[in-house]
Amino acid sequence: MGRPKLVRTEKLCPRCRQTLPLDAFYARPNGGPDCYCRPCRKDYQRRLAARKAGHRRHVRINARGDVWCNHCQRYLPTCSFRRHPSRPHTWWAYCVDCTRELDRLRWRGERRARHNAESPNRRRRRRASERSERRAFVAGAILTLRRRGLTKTDVSRLTGVSLGSILAAEQGGGRWGPTPHTAARFVVALRATAHLPTGAEPAYRRRLPLPGLAELVARVRPLMDAYPVRSRWRGRDAEEGTGHPLGAVPDVSEAFAKRQKEEEGTP
Known about the structure:
Elements: E1 10-13, E2 18-21, E3 25-27, E4 33-37, H1 38-54, E5 67-69, E6 74-76, H2 96-147, H3 152-159, H4 163-171, H5 180-192, H6 213-225, H7 234-240, H8 253-264
Antiparallel strand pairs: 1-2, 3-4, 5-6
Helix pairs in contact: 2-5, 3-6, 5-6
């Protein structure tokens, strides 16, 4: 035999916190008692009706034929509304002016969100484009300086850029990318050597530095110092008292002239 089924005769009303018999509750469609007792249910329905009365729903079309706009909360003539595309006999919920304003605000919000989402990618693409432009400019500047009679070592001494960076710039590969200060140093070098004649072929493996290179380096030193660059030679340069990766530039004008005379056979 199973346990006897318990029959409930009372129920607690969660609103008034009273335990009342089942006769004090309305019956639900399924036969069970209501959640609230009869007095609490009547009071709840009375309060709900009063709250709904405070938010009276406006008639969509008044007696004069004007249509109610749910956004600006006023009646406007039908010429201020658009027909609903799927229900031609009805009007849009908002007037034309309110629809334009809401679309403008929605478009601004979507545009701002799209802009914020694409900002990192846009900055990354811009930086990559600027880096490639600087790399191409530095490679062209090195070629121009070499056509003006400077070797790669001379270019390194003049600009203060390491020889390995110059080789990487000429090759055009690898992960090396010139900084804005490096590109600015090559701009200074191009302007300082504008008086030199430009040849058809670049200088290649000259045993002695360019005559007058020491004076040229000394003249552009203040301009180069305005654009500092990082270099692994910096510690050694500080000890040697030079600001260039290959150390001080010797004055070889006399040696170069003497060698040129020997080659020409001049006594």
